[in-house]
Amino acid sequence: MTDTLLQLAGVAYTYRGGAGVHDVDLEVRAGEVHALVGLNGAGKSTLMKLVLGMLRPQRGTVEVLGEEVGDAGREVWGAVGALVEHPLAYGELDAATNLALAARLHGVAARDVAGTVDAVLDELDLATYAGVLVRRLSAGNAQRVGLAAALAHRPRLLVLDEPTTALDPAGIITLREALLRRAAAGAGVLVSSHHLDEVARIADRISVIAEGRMIGSLDPGGVDIERAFFAKVHEAVTR
Amino acid sequence: MNGFRTAMVVEARKATASSTLRATGVLLALGVPAIVAAILAAAHGGGTPQARAQMLAKLGPEIAKADWHALVLASTQVTAAASVFAFGLGAAWLVGREFADGTAPALFGLPVSRPAIAAAKLVVHLCWAVIVSSVLAVTLALVGLAFGLGVPGAEVVAGLVRIVVLGTLSALIALAATVAATLGRGILPGVAVAAVTIVVAQITVFTGATAWVPLAAPALWAMDPGAVSAGPLTLVVAFGAACAALTIALWDRLQLVR
Questions:
Q1: Chosen from B110, B185, B252, B254 to mutate, greatest number of chain A CBs within 10 A
Q2: May I ask the CATH class of domain A1-78+159-167+186-239?
């Protein structure tokens, strides 16, 4: 079994107008949190869309759990959990029902759904809201439901785009602990974020993206990570 | 098609919680009988003479008898117009809501394939249409009984069954809305296609066009089954199947380019 859960090699995708990602190499190994940081429009979300098949790369290859993304089947996707742009949660359904449907869509057997939902409600501190319609939840709690949907089936690879969006400090800590637990259990996590301090707390590796290109990495244990980040971005955009 | 059964469970659960489908179904299943009841009341002598004359001019002199035959005839005409739009609205919502609500990205990277999800949506749409059409036919029968038209004969029952089939065929035509909702990435493009479909269908019927136009065939058949052969009706099924196949293919190739 390969230790590398996600591998991008020479990946490029250019939108009409020129934005996109160019010649990106990236790897996520089992048991590590790999953070992707960059300014708005740097290409983080585009990269995640390429990983999940929402966009087809114009050049290069994306391998998820050892399979080319275009050929990945049930087994591969059943071991992936993702939250990109909007949570898998429907306003007309309550949180528990949303999580039950998400578990089914992620390949959890019908007999195991109730236990799976209870466990993730507990893990993300959502039990109070289990019976509340998602449209009545705050943005932060709706985001938690989406994160729970991505985590519930215990995926080997997690792909999370700005997962702390709308979360309150308690929610951020709950998520941080959940991700560290999953990584400690052997899962690989690719997470994008604007929050450098938060990223520094959980990431094993931090890659910096600017104008669609990977421009280097940051030391998660570094003393002034914010200064280092802006220095790299400035150097890249003025080159 | 990976995970079709799971997709059916998920889509059926979403549909049962949908206020859009519930409201649209209730409006059709109760709205058409309400209109027909008003027509029968007018035919019985209610309303002004001018309004009555206008109604008979639009719906035909047979309506004036206000019997079971008049009820079935009026119901068929009203259902032909209303069902294409109502089912088009439902179809547009079922597919377009994933884009409008922003949940479409969450349908990638799943062991259940997008073609399976799209197919499940189409099956749910057709099941919903059959249920609504059946409730509509039963409600129409209750309207007839309430007007004291007596026990309906076999011909009337056949006419009410034709209304169920008309609704189902209209739901097939309405699948054009799922193609538009997918291409337009939202509910409104589907609704626009449903609106255009109903206008074209009505113009086609009232200008006496050939039954070989798929949009017109169900209504012409339901009003006069002997006048329309199996060929045009098969064409309606083929039209619906083509729209379904195109929708599934579009979901298979779906890309979320901003």
A1: B110
A2: alpha beta
